[in-house]
Design goal:
Order of helices and strands: HHEHEHHEEEEEHHHHHHEEHHHHEEE
Radius of gyration: 24 Å
Shape: globular
Strand content: 5-15%
Helix content: 40-55%
Distance between the termini: 25 Å
Oligomer: single chain
Length: 389
């Protein structure tokens, strides 16, 4: 039998994967969002007045596209960023033209008109108590750059450039560079040993350490900034994490390395009196920190430093890091994930305490006349969800 109970590093990584899985958007919501932007695409393609005879595409960008989305805190709506890619060169139109054409097409439909909100350079559709979708209209910079986009500036008087598809490919290429991720190796060992009485939650192990790492850092960010200003954007976190990722095969080591490198890079910039910059890897002319003030930089370093210190407390055992897990990810998420882990691990260990804990938490425990906890004889125990050390 594979005794996971004696391998803290594996337990820790498996728990981090469970926490990230608990935080990510559920399959139903993801399907609703995909259905939403596909419906908009169909509407625009059928509109005889909307860029007739020009190929168009509506697609997700950002966290949805690279598999790092997480649930917002405090019941906020999820922000689904999409691109309306018009495959024609931008210099044929003014920024106002493509923006107003999108508004006009959506206003023809009574439903979209009722949920539409005009933003500075995108159009927002507010889906009730679930998510909102920001649609950014864009054209091609040239006939030779079909993947890149030209997008209206906020003033609607000029254009800027972007490449969301290129950024996604860059990130996923780095994420997929990992060799023998520990959780995949763990899953294969369990399947070969056939120690599970129930199917393994394969989706738990499918994401790469970098994808899970970004999800978890973003969760820490959300909780850290719940009562603070100058929140660090997801694009900055994602870019830095991928930039400093070095092929670590575990979630814990990925975050540990990334935080250390970010912290060191920031301090190096300060010492040399150079500006700390986070450049778009597929468009180096774009600086994601260009609009940051001194307060933004101080806030960013405060967040990274605080997270780095807490991360070190997770290196030894669950007991010493328990309060940090709760502070980093939230008590409910941590306890639910730990609960599920104990139930799973109880099936794969000879440790009596872990076996008993799994039975009790899973509501499958009996106590026999000798006071021993087992799975089939004696008095049935109620399930228990409190946690000690």
């Amino acid at each position: 039998m594979i005794d996971i109970f004696k391998n803290y590093a594996l337990q820790r990584d498996e728990l981090l994967a469970r926490i990230a899985q608990e935080l990510q958007l559920d399959k139903t919501r993801l399907e609703r969002m995909e259905s939403a932007y596909n419906a908009v695409a169909d509407l625009l393609k059928k509109d005889e007045d909307f860029f007739k005879d020009v190929e168009i595409e509506v697609y997700a960008q950002g966290s949805k596209r690279i598999g790092t989305s997480i649930k917002p805190i405090n019941n906020e709506d999820f922000d689904l960023d999409t691109v309306l890619h018009i495959y024609d060169v931008y210099h044929k139109y003014s920024p106002d033209e493509i923006y107003n054409a999108l508004v006009k097409a959506l206003e023809k439909d009574s439903y979209y008109k009722s949920i539409m909100e005009k933003k500075k350079r995108c159009v927002r559709l507010n889906y009730k108590s679930d998510f909102h979708m920001d649609i950014l209209p864009a054209c091609m910079p040239s006939h030779f750059e079909k993947q890149k986009i030209a997008i209206p500036e906020k003033t609607m008087r000029s254009w800027s450039s972007g490449n969301p598809k290129g950024f996604s490919e860059w990130f996923l290429r780095i994420a997929d560079s990992v060799k023998n991720p520990v959780l995949i190796t763990h899953m294969r060992a369990l399947m070969e040993a056939k120690v599970e009485s129930e199917p393994l939650p394969v989706e738990l192990y499918q994401k790469t350490p970098l994808q899970r790492g970004v999800q978890l850092i973003k969760r820490c960010r959300d909780l850290y900034y719940a009562d603070k200003k100058y929140r660090v954007s997801s694009i900055v976190i994602t870019t830095l994490a991928a930039h400093f990722y070095n092929g670590e095969n575990s979630i814990f080591d990925t975050i540990d390395n990334v935080l250390e490198k970010i912290k060191g890079s920031y301090l190096d910039a300060v010492k040399s009196k150079a500006k700390f910059k986070v450049l778009n890897p597929v468009n180096p002319q774009e600086d994601f920190t260009d609009s940051w003030t001194d307060e933004h930089f101080k806030s960013f370093y405060g967040f990274i430093s605080d997270l780095y210190i807490q991360w070190q407390n997770l290196k030894t055992s669950f007991e010493t890091g328990k309060d940090d897990y709760i502070k980093l990810f939230g008590e409910g998420v941590y306890k639910k994930s730990l609960n599920e882990q104990i139930v799973t691990f109880s099936k794969n260990t000879d440790d009596d305490f872990t076996n008993a804990s799994g039975l009790i938490i899973g509501g499958k425990a009996y106590t026999n006349t000798q006071g021993q906890i087992n799975s089939n004889t004696g008095i049935k125990n109620e399930s228990h969800h409190n946690f000690g050390s």
